[in-house]
Inverse folding.
């Protein structure tokens, strides 16, 4: 099978590399020539464990993978074309901006030469895939193609594993022929008995948003409960454990923290609310989730200022800048948001992150970036653990406290044992403890 993937962002590149690993001849297309040049040198534009090895293997050894800046040339021989371009939030109302999807659909329609499937893999609001079909029908007849929705459920930091061992694959099709082709595409996953859920196109599009929104809801819920725990002397980790052991609830995504960030949840929750509003449907539960999450960083920054009695000109250290571990992605990172608020209050912010410092520096010149966690903590009044990178779990905290009085530690991700830290002499503040 010949595959063409248009858009080499996160979803596109991971999918392309992993489909090549399945054994398919795969062309990844992007109009950004610099990106294509770098990819042709096996350089991945973002940090993701495992991706560069696969990229190198299939670009240079198996030659199953290639890169191009031309949609026209790349779609001619394709059996399946995936649309994986970005769907950012529009400034107003959080609606998804689909202009890249429409442009690509038009270009595909002008260039395909034989029957193929055109698959939306970007996160797109319900109705988008059918709209893609309409655009394509302006140039070619309906027997020459089918459209499919096939959303992706990759987590940054573990995307290769998520692609190779997914909980499920969702395919939204209009007819049996396209379903058969999609089932054949994912046949390599039969080995792991991966469930393949076949639905209508609309259901498939909704499954993606409903899944992300539900996980975001779990997070805002546990964060609100954690605020209550702080007031009444309960411990959110015990509470989450006691809840999560109930199979109907499940223990995943019940980790209290500074709120959800990244390129997906904040954007997708807003877009899903927008879709509901457009159809006059009450999805106010999600508006509450979204509002609470947006305001959480301000409350955390206020808590840090008041508990640590931070004054203008004093220093705080933030360990971890990426929105989660094992990625250099700082989009909607809660650490960066907290750093910005502290900086606006006149606090000097020192920081260290294993992978995200160069991305962070570009947009946040006020950050004082340090070579390691220990240097970042020198001369600070407050240490904030913003991202739960493994290397922050076993820091030599004796080295950090160094006989200072009242050094405050805000363990936003609850990675340390409060008792041990208090014994060492820290003023310890966890989340929901
Ligand atoms: C998320 C989904 O998990 C993927 O299934 C989906 O494919 C992807 O969005 C997408 O739509 O492309 P991702 O944004 O990479 O993946 O990261 P998550 O692991 O879901 O974490 C999102 C945010 O929630 C992070 O800020 C994380 O720190 C936070 N989080 C997660 C919590 O605060 N508590 C938790 O218990 C779990």
């Amino acid at each position: 099978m010949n595959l063409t993937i248009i858009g080499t962002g996160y979803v596109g590149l991971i999918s392309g590399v992993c489909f090549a690993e399945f054994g398919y001849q795969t062309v990844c297309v992007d109009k950004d020539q610099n990106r294509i040049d770098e990819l042709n040198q096996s350089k991945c534009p973002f940090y993701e464990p495992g991706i560069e090895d696969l990229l190198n293997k299939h670009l240079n050894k198996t030659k199953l993978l290639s890169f191009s800046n031309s949609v026209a040339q790349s779609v001619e021989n394709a059996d399946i074309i995936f649309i994986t371009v970005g769907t950012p939030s529009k400034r107003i109302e959080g609606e998804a901006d689909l202009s890249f999807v429409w442009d690509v659909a038009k270009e595909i329609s002008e260039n395909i030469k034989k029957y193929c499937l055109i698959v939306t893999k970007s996160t797109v609001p319900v109705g988008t895939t059918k709209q893609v079909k309409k655009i394509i029908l302006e140039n070619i007849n309906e027997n020459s193609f089918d459209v499919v929705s096939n959303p992706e459920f990759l987590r940054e930091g573990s995307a290769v594993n998520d692609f190779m061992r997914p909980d499920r694959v969702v395919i939204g099709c209009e007819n049996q022929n396209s379903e058969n082709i999609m089932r054949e595409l994912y046949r390599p996953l039969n080995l792991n008995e991966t469930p393949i859920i076949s639905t209508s196109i609309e259901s498939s599009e909704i499954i993606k948003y409903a899944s992300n929104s539900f996980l975001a809801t779990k997070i805002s819920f546990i964060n609100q409960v954690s605020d209550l725990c702080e007031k009444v002397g309960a411990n959110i980790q015990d509470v989450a454990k006691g809840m999560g052991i109930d199979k109907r609830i499940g223990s995943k995504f019940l980790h209290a923290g500074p709120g959800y960030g990244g390129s997906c949840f904040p954007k997708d929750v807003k877009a899903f609310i927008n879709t509901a509003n457009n159809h006059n449907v009450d999805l106010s539960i999600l508006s509450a989730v979204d509002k609470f999450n947006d305001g959480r960083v301000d409350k955390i920054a206020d808590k840090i200022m008041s508990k640590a009695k931070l004054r203008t000109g004093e220093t705080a250290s933030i360990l971890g800048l990426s929105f989660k571990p094992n990625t250099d992605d700082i989009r909607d990172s809660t650490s960066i948001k907290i750093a910005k608020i502290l900086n606006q209050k006149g606090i000097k912010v020192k920081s260290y992150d294993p992978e995200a410092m160069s991305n962070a520096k570009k947009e946040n010149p006020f950050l004082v970036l340090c070579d390691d966690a220990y240097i970042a903590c020198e001369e600070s009044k407050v240490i904030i653990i913003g991202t739960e990178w493994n290397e922050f779990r076993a820091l030599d905290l004796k080295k950090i406290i160094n006989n200072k009085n009242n050094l405050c530690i805000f363990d936003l991700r609850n990675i340390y044992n409060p008792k041990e830290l208090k014994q060492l002499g820290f003023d310890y503040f966890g989340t929901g403890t």
